[in-house]
Amino acid sequence: MLSQRRDVRPIPLVDLPAEDALVGDAVRAAVARVADAQEFILGDEVARFERSIAERVGVPEAVGVANGSDALVLALTAAGVGPGDEVVTTALSYFATAGAIVRVGATPRFADVAEGSFNVDAASLERVTTAKVRAFVPVHLFGRVAPMPEILELATTRGLAVIEDAAQAIDAELDGVRAGAFGDFGCLSFHPSKNLGGWGDGGMVLCRRAEDAPRLRRLRAHGGYAGVHDEVGMNSRLDALQAAVLAAKLSFLERFGAMRRERARRYRELFCAARLEDVVRVPEAPTVGTEVVHHFVVRCVRRDALREHLFLRGIGVGVYYPRPLHLQPCFASLGGREGDCPNAEAVCRDALSLPMSPGLEPSDQERVVSAIREFYRGAAP
Ligand SMILES: Cc1ncc(COP(=O)(O)O)c(C=O)c1O
Questions:
Q1: Hey, which CATH number is domain 24-250, 3.40.720.10, 3.40.640.10, 3.40.30.10, 3.40.50.1820?
Q2: Which of 32, 58, 275, 358 has a 20 to 30 A CA-CA distance from 134?
Q3: Listed residue (276, 252, 281, 269) closest to 349, CA to CA
Q4: Ligand 1 proximity of 168 Cβ (cutoff 6 Å)
Q5: Atom of ligand 1 nearest to the CA of 141
Q6: What are 254-308's pLDDT values in tens digits?
Q7: pTM of the full predicted structure?
């Protein structure tokens, strides 16, 4: 087995210790506050954090839950999606997006991503929308908002619910609207690797209609209130500890978003200087809206060999995602075939996520690009 060189400092894909150093004592003070209060699940910390997020995203209500996957399940349930329904989502996402659709008893249908984008193609979405489709689940992948105006227009024409998977896109914006505030519901993940990440799991459902929030609050607590259960929900509550950590980190989110965009700009500059355009396609800066660069993903030839080359040089990279959702073995019975979503399939073959964190050093970015240049062009000059 090949092993990493030990004489070079590793550059992680996501550098949580560097982020923690920037956040400083704020998070530890928040943890101490929860330790003093001894109130660990829901409570004031969670209610305060829910209000901060609702205000920030621009929705009337936000409901804290145990993780982003549950947020999707709960939002689909609140939208009335269930057995016999179909739901259209993108073929390119983390598994949870499709898993949630199945967990509410519905059947996923997969649309392709647009050429040159990682987000769903509205025309493909329309093509796979059958009479049984009850909702759309667009994903704002890697921190860039999906084509929401087109998706909302189609949903309105067909009378469908829209549940946004904004797990990777808190603070991303298009036409002055933030990710999670376009649809009937928006779902956030606070997994530690996310742009706003906790010290464990966490998630949130954003509600465009305030009247949906009480039902969601019951659904996250087994569907009941004060011992009376009108329906069966799940146990999916946000910890006070996570809410306190996340609230402390929230005040850094805007600055961290700008730092991520600056690092994306720097990568573009370095790749341009490296003259690798025949082998590495770098994502252009968006012409509309604001991205939050959850991942910086390039498309490259001989991806797996390059990945190995970088790994050996201590450079952490990721493959998001190695297999599109329509070709997952667990969905074989749905009849998905290679060629159904050619753009998503191509991304799964050639996309590589490079190190990206607010604290990523310019010299480390230089090392990443120079190692990539070395792979394609031989030893750096
Ligand atoms: C696009 C997407 N959807 C859903 C999820 C699920 O979130 P969680 O891991 O908090 O359950 C994630 C994150 O992992 C994600 O990236």
A1: 3.40.640.10
A2: 58
A3: 281
A4: yes
A5: 1
A6: 999 999 999 999 999 999 999 999 999 999 999 999 999 999 999 999 999 999 9
A7: 0.97
